[in-house]
Amino acid sequence: MKIAVTYDNGNIFQHFGKTETFKVYEVEDGKIISSEVVGSNGAGHGALAGLLAGQAVDVLICGGIGGGAQAALAEAGVELCSGAQGDVDQAVEAYLKGELISTGVNCDHHHEDGHSCGDHGDGHSCGGHCGGHCGAAQPAFTGRNVGKICRTHYKGTLNDGTQFDSSYDRGEPLEFTCGAGQMILGFDKAVADMEVGQVVNVHLAPEEAYGMPDPNAVFSVDIAELPGSEALEPGQQAYLANQFGQPFPVKVVAKDEKTITFDANHELAGQELNFQIELVEIK
């Protein structure tokens, strides 16, 4: 698997069509094994898509990107995760951990043509338990850690005590830029004023976590119009792509001979969440 990131002096370049260099990562078993910086030779966005396809790139991570470029990437078979910002290496690590989600993905596009379907075992995703929308607007809160790279250990539980996620179990702290919109709001706000070594316990209402379930995010598609959906079964996780080729996670909730119904709400939408958070390091 290859991941390309628009590159400018270690950071994600924010205008895809004017990108002069990409950093291309070779990934095996979810781990980066090598990387190199390649030039774009001044190509426009259509040619850039061809350049990436020629490099056998599977995924592009970038900042801003227009509709024409998105269409060109989709045509070239390159998966897109847009709206990212900050350090390129950290963005790729976040993507591989399932903590990076492409901006612009929303339910308004679910009924557009051009869907494709992939199962949950593709080896990568654009959404995780704590990940928010990369590149989102700056949250309306302040704190000593806002704008800094924070590494945290955490354990997340539901009100009945069920654990849904834990960085302790994975043995690796979660790294993100506080206040950059990479995390759910309540988690981000909790870390904003913490000190290294401090442990806090927070209770989050749905509004500061994954919101309330949206009935419009439940939709049906003709199986004949969605290649790969015939193999899916109720309860299974999958990824669809909107008309720009941007992926979004869904759960199969129903299926008959002709149609399949998906739920694009986050699995924790509507839930009150509890987090034990330990600030391990500030970079």
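[next item in queue]
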Amino acid sequence: MMAGEQANRSVQTTRPSLTLINGRRELSYDQFESFVGISSHINDLKEFIGVQATHSQPVLLIGERGLRQEQVARILHQAGEHWGSPFFAVNAHGLGPEALDSLLFGPQGMIETVKEGTIYINELTSLPALLQQRFAVHLEEQRWRQPGGRPNSQRLVFASAINPGERSAENRIAYGLVEMLKPFSFSLKPLRERNEDIQYLVRHLTARISQRLGRGPHEISREALTALVDYNWPGNIDELETVIASAIESLPPKQIDEQALPSRIRFARLQSIPPAGIDLPSIVDDFERQLISTALAQTGGSQTRASKLLGLRVQTLNMKLKRYTEQDRPLL
């Protein structure tokens, strides 16, 4: 709790200036990656934030990894009436079931002690079944406790990869919980479904990362930008930022061309072999690391489940991960 309060104070001291929303204030979205672009999805997300900011109902953000769900939750918190109250981000993967249950539902847990403010839980459907059940009961109780239909000033924001429009789910409790939250949900589209936003994200991230690293201005060549726009981005905004940061860190202030990009991006839609040839082992290794990273993120870090998705033995996957660690080559 202490660490969360300190983090929240840090967020509040650097929060953007606010002007008018709903007759009082308006939040500037320009500096946040989740809102950069020109697609209809961006406008829909802004409208969703504007509507949800008028009350404190629980919110569900549906989407793949790397879409900055926590950033969206923080913007929703800042746009609401209780923006000056604490914001707590709970990493469900970083705690064991008992510690997580105590943190959230214990006598001094967040559900009891956070009267105003926002609690963000990063992966609702990966929580232990008991915690999912406790959240279902809590949300149902809150619905009946609210006199005259007035919502509680404490807001819960959940992230989930399960789409309520899909029939399949890992367990009935998780699916039922997602269905319960469906009226207050928003589906974040992956970058591959809104590639018109990518060039704006590239320029936004290039300017921000260059400034952060003190590396001077960088520009993206037309060929590099085309490669970035054409790539599918399984890791979405997080992966895009990692790629751009790596290119900027390795180059003096200059134009970033295709050669500064990872081989999996440069050759994603390769139609013919370049005259200079390619480094096939490097391309294969790069692609393999990306698939492993995606599988681990999709399964919440479970090597057993990830190995099944990849068609590997658990021992083989573990051996590959150890090799990456020994070579100081972190997953993407």
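[queue empty]
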